[in-house]
């Protein structure tokens, strides 16, 4: 059942089509209503907030006006600009590593056999079931300097202070993001790989193709569209994330999710915070539009 | 422990904060949940609604110790609501303000323990308290009442102290300057946490600010942006200190972050909340070799306050509770119990044995006005110290 | 598939993966490494939960105790948080399913007008940073009296679950042959009956996977709940934040273990659906 896709039937029967359009709208309506109240209205509010500029006089009194100063601040204030760049970099690195690992797991699950593969299929999903707060916390106790790993290494003779800084560093964010996102990406890639027929792979092998050639010329191209969708979704998750970079990240630069919360709760600058939210949104929107286009291409296919 | 402010700083994910107020632009039309009260303030109060927040120990102090005693002695039933992390403090404030704006006579909260900044906001939502209403208030140091314009009652305090590994350090620093010299002489062995994430980190930064910007400019004076110009020197000094700090300038997250580094032996000295560290020592999560000491002038800590909203439905009961709380017998619970705090009343009214528990309780103390200064300090610290290249 | 795979000498880059023994070795090493990476961090938490005293440089605790467990179970907040989390998650899952399954069906089978725009709109909850969204939502909650209410928390959790559920069910319905439904209709079944007795059973694995994700997402949500649920609706992960930030490390570890247990039970129960074609049906063509 997994190998065929049945697209929405474009029937050339005008009356039924109209009914179908109406029914379609009716079925989507509850979700749409929900999203309007709980997502779209707050989003519009946040966007309006981002154009509110607050000025402060010498005595600490505030005045408000409409303007684009907050946006300018994000690209002109060095720390804020660095945060944007840092966020994108971390997202790209995390996604790349997860992708490589998840692809390897998915390949092993799809084409491998034996007890090791069965074991693999049981363990790779575990992080999916661990709340991100706990995962971050576990990683801190595990990877901190003078943490669990450092302790073991020193036991076997590594000198003190030779352990690299992972916690409170970009490495900590990346490792924990990888840990957390691995199952999702693997599940996704596995299902994509399932669609590649055994016959195709075997016939390639029959004409003498090596494993690498099969991977390079058959598996990779066929799984690319699905893979790109997984990448998009993970990118969205990492760019907007808070828990992991807050608990494991460096003091500076900060990922935008963290910076936004600081601006809101600590610096009492909700306007700048909203602006950061909108910037993340715009970054993500590029990925989202790409995702939708990809989806349509697949349907056409 | 500076009540909710402390928690707000400690717990970054707490977001409601100003945003709510700012985006609502004033009159939030929420009525809150309607007052549970049928009784009026003139009749004998038989119930009381108390909102508080903070650490578990604060909850335990009220819920397990003070409230049961108060209920049995006064016959007033206390409904106690605890705000985890001090979350939603702004929400509670908005709730009070909304009831005032809606012209309600009887509000649904009688006592509120929160960040000191809330009591003195221009909205003026809190009763001015005097020792006519609360006789035990006469035992409270006057400066602490002046600090909030008599709008709230300080009932416990805790301070930020220097925690050090006594195995490695025989003579801990006595002043801030000595502390700085120690840090420079022992690179990598000291940490203070990121100010935005916990008050024990703020205390260190504030001490540096007061080194370059005179305390008299802040004590009881209104906000002036000019004072912040002095801060550049303080931030420059902090930045210069970075290479001598833990991992050449890694600032742990939260008050717990510093304790964590002490636990793992990563650092030999750090600034911590006295109550948290005392509890950690008692609970075995900090090794016994860790000792606490206070420098002079003391690192900035602060008192926790409780205020009575102007529309309180049960004012008499609220006053009675505060009076009960300031009784030396109850204050002893704060000092001796798991709370490990300072009393709200002057030490002279406390039994002698209660005093011995604390190092440096007698040191000179300076307030930090917080508010706009506080948020600016945290932002500027990030820009000029953490992110500086 | 391994049969006939023989490496040509000199193809340096690929000889390893073409030699079955070498391939097995690489696979085993890979699986072992992964098991360590995934498992050991969680095991350190288990160690911490039993640690009476554990100071650097000891690799394992020097004193063992179960007093942290006692402390956690004696604490009514913990029990309350657990009860709350497990009463919210199923409600969120059911409500999400009720509105997402029809939408998923419509996207898969019917000619929904403005489909492309709608699909993009359905992605906004994922594209807009959650924190920003929650804070904005909190403002709205004050206005419509949903702040610090049970339903306020439920509706907030649905933001995350709705997208997944819609997306997964769309893919699931699309993988079912429409002719089956038409055949049922031709045999005289009403549209609802045709859906219920033909399409729904076939889509069940996908729906179960989607529900599972929703349930887990609800259990995991801390940020938004912290903002709109306090002080009366403290769920497990919100409490966890508190414990981490107040340096009750062993207590936090105990709590982590307890918080992970139900999820892991769910994992074992859901193994059947998380493997093979079910997942493909659920997540494959997204």
Describe this structure in words.
The complex is a heterotrimer of chains A (301), B (389) and C (286). Chain A has 301 residues and is mainly α. Chain A folds into two domains: 12-44, no CATH class; 78-300, MetI-like fold. Chain A has twelve helices and two strands, in the order αββααααααααααα. In chain A, helix 1 (14-50) runs antiparallel to helix 12 (270-300). Chain A starts with 13 loop residues before the first helix and ends with a helix. Chain B has two domains: 3-157 and 302-355, D-Maltodextrin-Binding Protein, domain 2 (3-Layer(aba) Sandwich), CATH 3.40.190.10; 160-300 and 368-386, Periplasmic binding protein-like II (D-Maltodextrin-Binding Protein, domain 2, 3-Layer(aba) Sandwich), CATH 3.40.190.10. Chain B has a six-stranded mixed β-sheet with strand order 2-1-3-9-4-10. The model of chain B is unreliable at 1-42 (pLDDT under 50). Chain C has 286 residues and is mainly alpha-helical. Chain C has two domains: 15-67, no CATH class; 75-283, MetI-like (MetI-like fold, Orthogonal Bundle). Chain C has helices spanning 15-18, 20-49, 67-74, 76-109, 115-127, 130-143, 150-174, 178-186, 191-220, 223-229, 236-245, 249-274, 276-283, and strands at residues 51-53, 63-64. A two-stranded antiparallel ribbon of chain C has the order 1-2. Chains in contact: A-B, A-C, B-C. Chains A and C meet through helix 1, helix 3, helix 4, helix 5 and helix 6 of A and helix 2, helix 4, helix 5, helix 6 and helix 7 of C.
CATH class of the largest domain in chain A reads Mainly Alpha
The total of helices of chain A stands at 12
The count of strands of chain B amounts to: 10
Cα-to-Cα separation, first versus last residue of chain B: 33 Å
- Mean pLDDT over the residues of chain A: 84
Largest sheet composition of chain B: 6 strands, mixed
**What is the arithmetic mean of pLDDT of chain B?**
81
Give the secondary structure arrangement, pairings included.
The complex is a heterotrimer of chains A (301), B (389) and C (286).
Chain A: H1 14-50, E1 52-56, E2 62-66, H2 69-76, H3 78-111, H4 115-123, H5 132-143, H6 148-155, H7 170-194, H8 198-206, H9 211-239, H10 243-248, H11 256-266, H12 270-300
Antiparallel strand pairs in A: 1-2
Chain B: H1 3-10, H2 17-24, E1 47-54, H3 56-74, E2 77-84, H4 89-101, E3 111-114, H5 116-119, H6 142-146, E4 153-158, E5 160-165, H7 176-185, E6 190-191, H8 199-212, H9 231-241, H10 254-263, E7 269-273, H11 274-283, E8 290-293, E9 302-307, H12 315-325, H13 328-336, E10 342-343, H14 352-355, H15 371-386
Parallel strand pairs in B: 1-2, 1-3, 6-7
Antiparallel strand pairs in B: 3-9, 4-9, 4-10, 5-7, 5-8
Helix pairs in contact in B: 2-4, 3-12, 8-9, 9-15
Chain C: H1 15-18, H2 20-49, E1 51-53, E2 63-64, H3 67-74, H4 76-109, H5 115-127, H6 130-143, H7 150-174, H8 178-186, H9 191-220, H10 223-229, H11 236-245, H12 249-274, H13 276-283
Antiparallel strand pairs in C: 1-2
